[in-house]
Amino acid sequence: MPEARQLRPAAQDQHGQDPEIRTAAAAESRVAFPQNLREDHAMTPTRRALLAAPALLALPGAACAWAPEKPVRILIPYTPGAINDALGRLIGERFQDALGQPGLVENRPGASGSLAIAATAQAAPDGHQIVVANTANLCMNPFLFANTGYDPKRDITPVAVVARVMNVLVVKADGPIRSVPDLIAAAKAQPGRLTFGSSGAGSSPHLAAELFKAKTGTDITHVPYRGSAPAQVDLVAGRLTMSIDNLPNALGHVQEGRLRALAVTGSARDPALPEVPTFAELGFPEVEVHVWFGFVGPANLPAPIRDRLAEAIIRIAEAPETAERITRAGATVWTRNPAQMTTLVAQELDKWGGVIRGANLRIE
């Protein structure tokens, strides 16, 4: 058995940065914004599209048995700017209408998203704290880290999934690689010489590329970055060969002609890039990756509380105004109730556990 490669997380995107971001209520919103970022935090296209949605009317079914007695804290496991953050704020700012109490968003990054999940796992199961969860922090981190502080099958309660994105394989637009067969041929001709960038060791773009390598029999060297943006800059500049990033992160570069999209990791083509084939169309059906985003609470969350939160969250996500902004941001509205989310987590743990063990990956 080969010795596990120790990966030092020199880069993190949606999978964690150093924490200690304080939050305070924003004057113009019911949602708490990071105090130290309120002045100079740049609004990314993803955040701008999602947060532009108008307020919703009160949701049907509000007169249920359970209602929060105080604001609901929504932890975001990453720093502001990525789709995790934007989705959490979009849902949270509509809690007042949906549940009668505001959602207070708090960014708590660190340990590739594990800190916020662990904090919520330890919270009181009373419905007043939930956390934005995704494929990575629930179904990848437990295999990458020796101790995340939580067991996703034991220590959390799945509440609802609201959206998902696929990844896209991109290369420099004016470079020599013009197709997936070109890339595979170049990689096999020069084992270990080609490079792929990711937004951090253990991130979903990293593991999507590891899955691609495993299914195509190629050896391509990983270069981790501190987020997607710098990786995309180096790819555009020709300092990297490729990346398989979350589609919203690469979409602008593709649309503006700086990067060429070769394939998407979805089960069907993405409406934002209808001319780009899926990996399945190219003969690699197992290279399928969707990064989904949802909400979980502590273990032992009573069913009436869980179901009331799920109803509100799903109705907010499916409202036409919200759905339009999610689509414009490069994601797809994809809702799942508590039972469906529980099944999804179990399936994804099986899938990514195999990928990570097969690549012999560990993060210190």
Automatic annotation (TrEMBL):
According to the UniProt record, where is the region Disordered?
A: 1-20
Checking InterPro entries in the record gives:
BUG (IPR005064), Bug_dom1 (IPR042100)
Q: Show the CDD domains listed in the entry.
A: PBP2_Bug27 (cd13578)
The family this protein is said to belong to: Belongs to the UPF0065 (bug) family.
Indicate what this protein is called per its UniProt record: Tripartite tricarboxylate transporter substrate binding protein
**Species name for this entry?**
Paracraurococcus ruber
